[in-house]
Amino acid sequence: MSSRYTDKKLVDSLVQKHRHRHLVGGLWDEIAGLQLKTVVRHGLTPGHSLLDAGCGSLRAGHLLISHLNPRNYFGFDYNDSLIEAGYRAELDADQKDRCPRSQLKVADVTQTLPFERRFDFVLAFSLFTHLDRESVSNGIKVLADALSTDGKLLATFFIAPDRTVDKITHKEGVVTFSDQDPYHLSLDEIREIGLRAGLSSVKDTEFTHPRGQSLVVFKPNS
């Protein structure tokens, strides 16, 4: 697994320059609102529990914490400095009370997660777009294990027309690759990865992302 987010020295230096919003891709308000709107459209209610995989500096988290009942938002990220910057700068006192810092963990999505529970919803927005195919496969398996029996995993990807395409320039101007960050995968590859993790999947045709990512919704096979 290799991307700019795994360079902890780089991330720490940018966080120290108060660039925690830039580090998670910018478009702070637009994409945060999109994430909240999307997960609500897929059935999220305040009583559900939610795990934000790759929560970063809480771009979506600061809205989700207020939407959910207290103690129902959990998150993890590879970089503790990014979590800490978001927790200090983006949450007010009430939000911190609703989501104690202990519910935000440092973890690698390809490894066993430090949560002793399962979740009704798991979000993975702009996470797998930075990981190679093997890491995506491992990550989907890990997140599948974090889902409740009727839970949903909502994950975004850059989609390739088939698995043989090495480079794509998307209409939004983003260039993606099969073998370097940012990565793309074909829908067939995504479905196969899901099935190996015990999940069925479907592309959300209503979802529109400003940088051209697509949303795939995974559910445990019945």
Account of the protein in words:
The chain has 8 helices and 10 strands. The protein is an alpha/beta fold. The strands form 2 sheets. Strands 1, 2, 3, 4, 5, 8, 9 and 10 form an 8-stranded mixed beta sheet that branches. A two-stranded antiparallel sheet has the order 6-7. The longest helix is centred in the N-terminal third of the chain and has 14 residues. The protein is globular and about 50 Å long. The mean pLDDT is 93.
The CATH H-level superfamily is Vaccinia Virus protein VP39
Beta-strand percent range: 15-25%
Number of helices: 8
Q: Based on helices, strands and strand pairing, what is the structural class?
A: alpha/beta
Q: What is the CATH architecture descriptor?
A: 3-Layer(aba) Sandwich
Gap between N and C termini, in Å? 31 Å
Mean pLDDT across the residues is: 93
The figure for the number of domains is 1
Q: Which stretches are low in confidence, meaning pLDDT under 50 for 5 or more residues running? A: none
- The CATH C-level class name: Alpha Beta
